[in-house]
Amino acid sequence: MKYAVLDFETTGNQSSDEIIQVGLAIIDHDLTINKVYSSYVKPGLSIPPFITQLTGITEEDVASAPVLDEMMVELVPLLDDVVLVGHNVAFDFNFLQSALDRSGYLPFTGRILDTMDFLKIMFPSLPSYQLSLVSGEFGLQHDRPHQADSDALATALIFLKCLEEIDALPLLGLQRLSDLFAGEDSDLGWFFDAALEEAEKKADQSIEGFTYYRQFALKTEDWMDIMPARSIEDENPLKDLNFEQFMDQVRLNLSAKLSHYEEREAQNMMQTEVMKAFDEDKHLLIEAGTGTGKSLGYLLPSIYHSVKSEEKVMISTHTINLQEQLRERDIPLLTEVVPFPFRAAIFKGRQHYLCLRKFEHKINKRDFSSPREDVLTAAQMIVWLTQTETGDDEELNQGNKGLEFWETVASESDSCLGRSCPWFRKCYYHKAKHEAGIADVVITNHSKLFTDVKAGHQLLPSYERLVIDEAHHLEEVAGKHLGMNMKYFTVVHTLTRLYKDSRTGQLSNLRMQLQSSPSEKAQEWVSVIDSIIPDLIEVKEHWDRLSDLLFALMPERSDAAPGDPGQFVLRLHPTKKPKNWEDLTDQENVIFMTLGTIIRKGERMLNELKDDDGGFGSESLMTDLSGLFKDLASERDHIRMFMKLENEDTVYWIEGNGHYRSRSLQIFAVPVEVSEQLKAYFFDKKKSVVMTSATLAVDKSFQYMIEQLGLKEAFEQDRVLTSLLPSPFNYREQALLVIPRDFPSVKGSVGDDHFVNTLVQSLGNAAIATHGRMLVLFTSYRMLKQVYEPLKDMLSANGITVIGQGVDSGNRTKLTRRFQSQQASVLLGTNSFWEGVDIPGDALTSLAIVRLPFQPPNHPLIEAKSEKLQQQKKNPFMKLSVPQAVIRFKQGFGRLVRSSQDRGIVIVYDTRILDSYYGKYFLYSLPGPKMEHMPTEQMVPRISEWLSASQV
Asked: Does 282 count as an annotated binding residue?
């Protein structure tokens, strides 16, 4: 086969746009690139500035280039008898067909392949499928992104890489892919058929490196063979070693392994503090700023303690990201430097693991709701099974449709067959559970911690010592899990998984099986199913009606981001129910009663089926159905609990989004206070809980956290240690904080014209002085939008790109990557950018904080907490709003300096930090940057002066 890899640069992506450059790389039968053709093309219209900015192609470049017809004379012969390949090939193909038509040629009728499809299938774990990022990931030369010849060559090299990967697939994997695409008349299907034919001709069918089971090729093996790190007979490796001696050995090994290793004073202090808390059975609050190396600060004492005393230590993170970082980076390093074998296991919530039984069923039955996307996702997962040892969805780059697919094949407790499942010994969830059971240290996340509490401690192995990283999120996560949050689609998904139409849904599957069952009671059960289906449809109608009525109660909120579920918000009070609430409870009553009937009928039928000897053998289908009926029961109870509005200590509220209306509805019922529950579940029960984060103290004091987390009693009994570690960075030298003291102030979340104009002017001037490389943090999306267009206009003349969250994309990772890859850019972000974004080095030189990050006081939870404080005769603003905002402000400030080499400027445009009585709490909580305030006009000269002094 001969492939032609095509790429066009154009004046835009509309059909009226024109080609300005072509690149074509020819891959010959022997899979070598034997020719790269490239030419500029003179268009009939001018090149828009943003295209020049993107591609670097100017009017001068195309002025003397051949016109379209002349270029096509050279291009068309190269397309003879080839398979056309492109990255997002539909774009280039449409321009090709239009060019052929305009130049009087017949359309291209050959086969077309998209490298995007191949990358998704063959490299399911790539973080991004963008051409330049994939090239970087594969270590390929791609010097001039968005230039057609460079893009075509990079795409050709990537395509060859995919072909190599296909070649390395086990034959069974290829057969599975070929079967999967067989139902489709597609060029991709044709390709995998041809690849299978080639593979079957080969003599050496190597089967090493894989496990073969039930017609799947897997990387994973039986988890029952996984043993503890040390056998029980061995003497304890720490028997005669105290913590200091152990640490001396570790440091020696670290300096031998890492050429740039240097001891960090703060990290040593942290290790000592954590060890002290473990030894003395105390709780510890420890603030460790960026650069401390806090992961090793708590991991090493945890490993030492768990091995020495032979009791497990549990470690919990807020984000899966940090869990992954510990898995990918810290644990492998420690495995090499700790002088004895130990085991650290990662254990996540069950829904993160693939259920192989459900996946097998879905593939074999071709149970796909959107065929093209689902077939691609299934293909991706067939290849992934040959690569994954964990079956953890975080390894997969799934896209939106993939996420819907995942929901139908994820592991769930209610539909688990346990030991009677044919896949039990290969099961990813049970493997993770087994590994956690034999590990010394288990790394989980806050969500799983609370799910375990709610499940009566049945999920996690038992533990007496707990380390909570990112502990400033503990209270919020506790509220979510100890309360209730349900979406409109939670109910809809359960209903449609039971019954979507006569061919789709587990009840339809059961009905089809019963029709061919020899059991004499089969017909009776078919009529039970036929009586349940109209009830399910009725529940869906009433749930839609109830969601519409709930959504209609909400006043429009004007300051939220699109895609931000807080666009509409309404708190519901137990004492003052909205008028017409009876209409809503009537709907809920019908849902409650009808679901009761469905669940009773369904469960009785399943029990009869299980007892029947008529040879009805689909145990997995019965388990799935039983699980779905249990889901319906818990959803029914949640809706009732919400609609009753009867608990004074619970905050009830609803949220929705203007775009999707009642389809975006979420209902919440969250305890106002979780401190009592945290105390009962953790601080009273566990010997030692260590809480760490870069932001726990407010104005150098831990009082706020002690009160919020329920540590007051333990503190009074001298069971709480606190430690504020010194920063490893020299903030005085590395960071300058500037406050323009005459800056206009703003009321609410929207700026007036004077404020917005002054802000745009100041941000623009500062961005020019720092050559872009600026992150601007907003507290309101409305204000971000007000600033975006005028700032973009102002900076485009200086070659600086403006990237806006929610305008260019809502995805934080994508935006951050784009910001890092573009030399001169300004990134505008709201809520999710205040923390967890890591942009070290030169990509970020300045950080602008537009407003102090106070939570909206009218958010239902904040409102309820404030009311409670008022009842206790306390000032909610000083006790709640200020501490919360200070912690968020410290998180935002922490985006700037991420290493000892980083230097940068922070501009705070909110003059309340100088003028108000509470401003000092913000300033005193920072880790000691140089602070200056001045008139706005003096700010940019001062920034330039400071930056140039720092480069000397």
From this structure: no
